[in-house]
Amino acid sequence: MEEECVFDWKYGCKQSKKKEGLVNTKAKRIDNIIRCSKLYNDDIHHKLQSQYDSNAELVLRVHKTCVDKYVHPKEVQKAMEHQQECGMQNQVMSHQKEQDALNFPTSASYRTASSVEMTVQLKRIQKTHQDGDQPISVDKLNE
Q1: Which residues, at least 6 apart from 52, have a Cβ–Cβ distance to it below 8 Å?
Q2: How many CB atoms lie within 10 A of CB 84?
Q3: Any residues with CB less than 8 A from the CB of 11 and at least 6 apart, and which?
Q4: Phi and psi at residue 60, in whole multiples of 5°?
Q5: Can you say how many angstroms the Cα of residue 45 is from the centroid of all Cα atoms in its chain?
Q6: How many H helices and E strands in the chain?
Q7: Is 62 helix (H, G, I), strand (E, B) or coil?
Q8: pLDDT at 89
Q9: Cβ(104)–Cβ(114) below 8 Å
Q10: d(CA 94, CA 76)
Q11: Cα radius of gyration (the chain)
Q12: How far is 98 from 51, CA to CA, in rounded Å?
């Protein structure tokens, strides 16, 4: 069976058919990978930490370029900034939902309900005209 890089899930090593050979990475590098994984918030640190705790001689097979990129400070910084931006967007969206709930008349659910109500009113007016009865003004329907 062909060995694969630990970072195949992130960098698609198999698909890109990297020609670079795999290297062994040991304790110090594994500690750094676990630390970076926590910063990336990608959860591989759970698996690696448990493997490392049960085997202090753990060796990972990686492409040197993959592990170098994964632990590179600029890459980690970019990921953390992206997480912060996403967190800020989530906070803004959450705040907007709270505002919508407080200002019910301007919320999307109210607008939808109003649209449905208006459609029903227009259909009533249309039906009234088709049946030959006296037309009803929209103001009277709103009363």
Answers
A1: 30, 34, 58
A2: 10
A3: 5, 63, 66, 69
A4: -105, 145
A5: 20
A6: 8, 2
A7: strand
A8: 64
A9: no
A10: 27
A11: 30
A12: 44
- Between vectors from CA 45 to CA 42 and to CA 48, what angle results, nearest 5°? 135
Tokens 């990686």 sit at which residue? 62
Sequence spans of domains, the chain: 8-71, 108-142
Contact 14, 4 (CB under 8 A): yes
- This prediction has a pTM of 0.58
CA distance 7 to 104: 48
Amino acid in the structure at residue 24: N
Dump pLDDT digits (tens) for 34-93: 999 999 989 899 999 999 999 989 999 999 999 999 999 999 999 888 888 887 666 655
Contacts of 133 (CB under 8 A, 6+ apart): none
Residue 21 structure tokens:
């050979």
Cβ atoms 96, 52 nearer than 8 A: no
